[in-house]
Amino acid sequence: MDAADVPGSSVLMDSPRTIVGVRAAELAAEVVTGAAGTTAPRVLVTAGSGFALRSWSAPLLAALGSFPLHTVVQSGLPTPESVALLAHQVRAHRADVVVTIGGGSVMDAGKAAAALSVTSDPTPESVVRMCREGAGAQGVPPIIALPTTPGTGAEATPFATIWHRDRGRKLSLRGSALLPATAVLDPDLLVGLPAPHLVSCLLDTLAQGLEGAWSIRADERSEWLGATALALLADLLDRPHDNLDATQRHAALLAGHLAGRAIAIAGTTVCHAMSYSLTLRHGLSHGHACGVTLAAVLRYNALVDDDCTDPRGALRVRGAIDKAVQATGLDGVETLARKIEGLARSPALPPVPDIRRDATRIATEALAYDRAGNNPRRVDVAALTRLLARTAERDYAR
Ligand SMILES: [Fe+2]
Question: How far apart are CA 122 and CA 86, in angstroms?
Answer without folding.
Answer: 9
